[in-house]
Design a protein that fits this description.
By secondary structure, the protein is mainly α. The chain has a domain at 7-171: Rossmann fold (3-Layer(aba) Sandwich), CATH 3.40.50.620. The chain has helices at 7-23, 40-54, 70-88, 99-111, 116-119, 143-153, 169-172, 174-183, 187-203, 206-220, 229-252, 258-266, and strands spanning 29-32, 58-61, 92-94, 125-129, 132-135. The strands form two sheets. Strands 3-5-4 form a three-stranded mixed β-sheet. Strand 1 (29-32), helix 2 (40-54) and strand 2 (58-61) form a beta-alpha-beta unit. It is globular.
Length: 267
């Protein structure tokens, strides 16, 4: 997994390490040192320390850069991560993008005048290179939720001062977003949910099709206006659980008599 040494990536490192131990699988921490600021060496040392404390390998990449703008740094980082994954025979690379990252991405896309693709935001997974997938397992979680894991782990972390530099466009939206979060505490969850819905519509997922059918049914009954989005999602969740129940029952054997069946149905 990619580990920058920042709080979110260290929290994810702790989660991934714990899950890997339970599954008895290996995990390698990959750190990309762009070398564009004075604290870069400190970040690298933090990641090496984490690897030592968890008993995990740490691989370091130091790409040569012609520029230090956002796009160049991002492209160099992903190319380096793909190269490290190939070197270790890894089929996937995990990154610690969060709900706040999703909010920033969607807003920046809106400011550019995006279409549906931009509103879908950061994908939870995509191809990084041939045979290597980039996954973002904590994309729906917030900094605060990851901070709980970070405190539990007791692992060291570093703060990147470049996160406050206004020359990077993403940083320019962070201060106003912090003020908005004081008024709208669920802002990041709402944007993450919106992005997931739009992505589902674009990809034509089963969930998106079920949502559309339910909305059309309510619209035909002139009842859609009175049904909030949360209730539609809750109905879809209940339907999904109902579909899963017979599958679990078939796996464990049918009820022994009709009394058991009626009791289960009433429940």
């Amino acid at each position: 997994m990619a580990c920058s040494g920042g709080p979110d990536s260290v929290a994810l490192a702790s989660i991934v390490d714990r899950l890997a131990r339970a599954a008895e699988t290996d995990v390698v921490f990959a750190h990309v040192n762009h070398g564009v600021r004075a604290g870069a060496a400190q970040d690298e040392c933090v990641v090496l320390s984490i690897g030592a404390r968890l008993g995990r390998r740490v691989l370091i990449a130091r790409p040569q850069l012609e520029r230090d703008d956002e796009a160049t740094l991002r492209d160099a980082r992903y190319a380096a991560l793909a190269a490290l994954a190939r070197a270790t025979g890894s089929a996937s690379v995990a990154t610690a993008h969060t709900a706040e990252d999703q909010t920033e991405t969607v807003l920046l896309a809106l400011f550019r005048g995006t279409g549906l693709g931009g509103l879908a935001g950061i994908p939870p997974r995509r191809s990084l290179a041939a045979g290597i997938e980039l996954v973002r397992p904590v994309l729906r979680l917030t900094h605060a939720e990851l901070a709980t894991e970070l405190r539990r782990s007791g692992l060291p972390y570093a703060i990147d001062p470049s996160n406050a530099e206004r020359r990077y466009r993403r940083n320019a939206v962070r201060e106003p977003l912090e003020r908005l979060r004081a008024e709208f505490p669920q802002l990041d969850r709402a944007v993450a949910r919106c992005a997931a819905i739009v992505r589902g519509e674009i990809e034509g997922t089963d969930r998106a099709k079920a949502r559309s059918a339910l909305r059309e049914g309510l619209l035909a009954q002139d009842a859609l206006r009175d049904v909030p989005f949360e209730r539609i999602e809750a109905a879809l969740d209940a339907a999904a659980r109902g579909k899963a129940a017979p599958q679990r029952e078939a796996a464990h054997g049918a009820p022994s008599d009709s009394t058991d069946r009626s009791t289960r149905d009433d429940a």
